[in-house]
Amino acid sequence: MTLTCDVLVIGSGAGGAPTAALLAEAGLDVIVAEEGSFVEQGSIVPFSLEQMNRQYRGGGVTVALGRPSIAYTEGRCAGGGTEVNSGLYRQPPTDVVARWREGWRIDDLDPDDVATLAAEVEAALSVQPLPGPAGEPSLALQRGADRLGWKSDESPRWMTYPEGDPRRGQRQSMTRTYLPRAERAGARLVYDCRVDRLEFRGDRATVAHVTHHDGRRDTIRFRDVFVCAGAIHTPALLQRSRLRRNIGHTLAVHPTVKLAARFADPINVPDDVPVHQVKEFAPDLSFGGSASHSGLVALALLDNWRDFGSAVVDWPNIAVYYAAITSEGRGRVISLPGTTDPLVTYRLTARDRALLAQGLERLSMLLLEAGATDVFPSYRDAPRVRDRRSLARISSTFGADKASVMTVHLCSTVPMGEDRDKCGASSHGRVHDTVNVYVNDASLLPDAPGVNPQGSVMSIAIRNARHFLTEARRG
Amino acid sequence: MTSTCDIVLGHDFPDLAVDRRHVVVSFVVGRLGVLPGPMRLGVSVVATLVAGVRTLGGDGVIVRLSRMALPLVGEYFRLLRSLSYAYIWETWPDTTPTGAESRTRTVP
Predict the structure, then answer these.
(1) Are A64 and A406 in contact (CB under 8 A)?
(2) In terms of pLDDT, which residue wins out, A252 or B51?
(3) Is a pLDDT exceeding 90 seen at residue B45?
């Protein structure tokens, strides 16, 4: 069967959903092809293995190879990563936007305009602080930072809170916001439908070859196509479609190391994450809290199980925290013949490794100040940290190769800009050397922004969708 | 993969009930089956090597190998353990460090 539309949007996450909504509301005939399934929010326990099975790619087990390899996760479901992430929101930093504009020669990228777009996103997603006190794992971060005189703040979230209860937030993810808008405007949402490759006639893509969950194969004909499959699968699809120039060579992430901190009293909140973040050393280094249910506590203790394993029985008193860095390293996404999954690699620099060690040491200090009785850093042969004297042992024993390094923020694999030596797409996302293939997701960000990137991704996506409409009206 | 995972879990958790161990092994093998293509290929290669080593040296060699920080092989065992440990404590949060069922919390 062949479907036909004006615009095909591939992916329904933070880039694809607003793109589809804006284009459909402008009267275009839009099809959204999403590889994953629709999963009703609230039907699965957040951060559980069941959620990983149903809403993450590869069951949540995906790795960028390197020394060390870096575990990453990607949402693969209606709404993409917005359905499964922490829901924390940060505005695109104005200094970062200005640096992108200069460094990659991006036309029309005014930090003030981006801030205006971010305000629009915030209104659409009901971005707001908690209506009441944060949970104890979050307050511990704030308390430790206060005692050390370090800057910390509460990250707002895109959630609503029925009856003002801070423990009952409802995520305003893409399946609650932009996808229903797209559908109301006439967009057709096709789930469980993977786009295998785009077919070209000259420099114009004309057809997408797709495979449904049950193995059926179809084609979708279109006038224009927006690839919004995320920073790994957008470049992989473009490469499979024989577009390779500056595509997939510059993966940027926020590498993250973790630790478990035990307190005298119960602290664990199994189904949520802390909202406070410590920004004293930002953008190089940021601290925050992770999901901490009992299985994830065991995971955090795993690297030195012989010495740390006995603590697992006390998981209600344990919370997991992270130190994230802005990395100078880069990775690659390499499409391989015979598989739709690309090979992903990442290389940390010496500076990155030093920063990760510094991050674990400072985060441990902060948690001791917050009242932790023991800190268990997640790396092989790590010391149990009980006081300030034992902190120094982290820097003497830490090695990134021994650590469980992970990330959830992936970007920059098709950087936008007019500098053709390093950019895969134009200032508004059109893939260079094509006339109708656009990228509109985290792949476009020139590097990792140093904060949660969803606000940046959505603001840029709206900017580019509007530019596309303006150009289309001009004919 | 199944037997390697079973050996590792049997060693790490001597008190884990056999039926539970089988459930965990089944979960781990299922997850390895849905890994992204290149990763699945790499894991299969390493798993085949490890199975070959077991044929030559027995179960004890697998346990020793699983404790060594070898490139790729070490990551394979870490993957098995990550999935197993996360599953055990998410499914049965009252499990002791040796794998026994317990409802008594202790603070070391």
Answers:
(1) no
(2) A252
(3) yes
pLDDT tens digits for range A276-295: 999 999 999 999 999 999 99
Within 8 A by CB and 6+ apart from A127, the residues are: A89, A121, A156, A157, A158
- Confidence (pTM): 0.95
Q: Is residue B40 helix, strand or coil? A: helix
B93: closest chain A residue by CA? A294
- For residues A399 and A77, give the distance between their C-alpha atoms in angstroms, rounded to a whole number: 35
B chain contacts of residue A302, beta-carbon cutoff 8 Å: 78, 81-82, 85
Size of interface A-B (CB pairs under 8 A): 90
Distances (CA, A) of B35 to A61, A81, A277: 7, 18, 32
> Where would I find the beta strands (DSSP E) of A247-404?
252-253, 256-262, 276-278, 285-289, 318-325, 330-334, 343-347, 374-377
Q: What is the mean pLDDT of chain A?
A: 96
Q: A92: how many CB neighbours lie within 10 A of its CB?
A: 24
Angle at A115 between CA A109 and CA A118, to 5 degrees: 110
A232-241, A267-276, A445-454, B48-57: segment of lowest average pLDDT: B48-57
Given a contact cutoff of 8 angstroms between Cβ atoms, the answer to whether A211 and A190 are in contact is no
Q: Give chain A positions within 8 Å (CB) of B27.
A: 49
Catalytic residue among A409, A428, A432, A467: A409
Residue with the two structure tokens 């055990």: B88
Mean pLDDT of A387-397: 92
The whole-chain average pLDDT of chain B stands at: 89
Are the CB atoms for A104 and A419 separated by under 8 Å? yes
HEC per residue, A181-193: HHHHCCCEEECCE
Indicate whether A70 pLDDT > 50. yes
Q: Which region, left, alpha or beta, applies to residue B93 given φ > 0 means left and ψ of -120 to 50 means alpha? A: alpha
Cis peptide leading into residue A449 (ω within 30°): no
pLDDT at residue B108 greater than cutoff 60: no
Dist CA A187 CA A157 (whole Å): 27
Write down the pLDDT at residue A51.
93
Distance from CA of A414 to the nearest CA of B (A): 21
How far apart are the C-alpha atoms of A95 and A350, rounded to whole Å? 25
The number of beta carbons lying within 10 Å of the beta carbon of residue B10 is: 16
Rounded to an integer, what distance in angstroms lies between the CA atom of residue A319 and that of residue A267? 7
Helical H segments across A305-439, by residue range = 305-308, 350-369, 392-397
Report, as an integer, the average pLDDT of A241-248: 96
